[in-house]
UniProtKB/TrEMBL annotation:
Its main location: cytoplasm. Its EC number is 2.3.1.31. It is found in: Cytoplasm. It comes from the Bacteria. Pathway: Amino-acid biosynthesis; L-methionine biosynthesis via de novo pathway; O-acetyl-L-homoserine from L-homoserine: step 1/1. The gene is metAA. GO terms for cellular component: cytoplasm. This is Homoserine O-acetyltransferase. InterPro entries: Class_I_gatase-like, HST_MetA, MetA_family. Gene3D superfamilies: 3.40.50.880. SUPFAM superfamilies: Class I glutamine amidotransferase-like. Belongs to the MetA family. Transfers an acetyl group from acetyl-CoA to L-homoserine, forming acetyl-L-homoserine. The record marks S192 as: Important for substrate specificity.
Length: 310
């Protein structure tokens, strides 16, 4: 599937090397196709790496997707150049009058802080409220999922005694949902977090359902009854070496991290980790895009303007 991005976005060369069809703006202008409009609110400090990971996961459908990268105006990224942010990212004021078929809200390394103390919390709340009327379906990841559950439904988070890090086995609890089309009953996904949401809190909210979970890592997928919001507690977009980079980074800082579980062969960090979740990562994004965005979106392109279907 062609992912429409700016001509010189760094992810372009990486994805092309993997034989993923990336369509630049220049080429897209020559095609008379109504693309799906997806906005990605990237809260991760590793902006370029996260962009590439998510775009890779969106690459497995025949749909043309137009990507808008969004940043918060109330927080300045310190891990990527200002030139990159200016060239490729927009701020909320620039897009708030637009409608989008889908939205992705990433995780962020602020999970140990109370939500209200996060520098950009008020802006994030404004964006999440806006998404209810301007976005057809929203896909929340890790801290973004916890923040979304807290804002929309009042679900609290809890600080864990020790970090959950590793690749864990999960079970599909809602087998009839099209989000899990093509899934085996058991699948793997990475987690990397210090906090959790609990099933007993989610089960008290009639509008929510737990769709997949892990005996070790807890709740994994939560969905709203109307399919407008999905909350994913792990990182199905991670590359094979992402957890390793996090582990060695923390070790170099003297944080004495535990070895990620079920990740390195024989739990030996000197050995190359194996990819166990690639198929799941592709399926969950593809199914979300196909069934909960493309097939049900209420928006159309009319006279060059993206508007609700009359």
């Amino acid at each position: 599937m062609p992912i429409k991005i700016q001509d010189d976005l760094p992810a372009k060369s990486v994805l092309e090397d993997e034989h993923i069809f990336v369509m630049t703006e220049t080429r897209a202008l020559s095609q008379d196709i109504r693309p799906l409009k997806i906005v990605i609110l990237n809260l991760m400090p590793t902006k370029i790496e996260t962009e590439t990971q998510i775009l890779r996961r969106l690459s497995n459908t025949p749909l043309q997707i137009e990507i808008t990268l969004l940043q918060t105006a109330t927080h300045e990224s310190k891990n990527v150049s200002e030139e990159h942010m200016i060239a490729f990212y927009q701020e909320f004021d620039q897009i708030k009058d637009e409608n989008y078929d889908g939205m992705i809200i990433t995780g962020a390394p602020v999970e140990m802080m109370p939500y209200e103390e996060v520098e950009y919390w008020d802006e994030l709340c404004e964006i999440m409220e806006w998404s209810k009327t301007h976005v057809h379906s929203t896909f929340h990841i890790c801290w973004g999922a916890q923040a979304g559950l807290y804002y929309h439904y009042g679900i609290p988070k809890y600080i864990l005694d020790k970090k959950i890090s590793g690749v864990f086995s999960h079970k599909v609890l809602n087998k009839k949902s099209r989000l899990f089309r093509g899934f085996d009953d058991t699948f793997y996904a990475p987690h990397s977090r210090h906090t959790e949401v609990r099933a007993e809190d989610i089960e008290k909210v009639p509008e929510l359902r737990i769709m997949a979970a892990s005996e070790e890592a807890g709740v994994y997928v939560v969905g709203s009854a109307d399919d407008s919001q999905f909350f994913i507690m792990g990182h199905s977009e991670y590359d094979v070496d992402t957890l390793a980079k996090e582990y060695f980074r923390d070790a170099e800082k003297g944080m004495n991290p535990e070895v990620p579980k079920h990740y390195f062969p024989d739990d030996d960090p000197t050995k190359q980790p194996e990819m166990k979740w690639s198929a799941h990562g592709q399926w969950i994004y593809s199914n979300w895009m196909n069934y909960f965005v493309y097939q049900t979106t209420p928006y159309e392109l009319k006279n060059g303007v993206f508007v609700p279907v009359e």
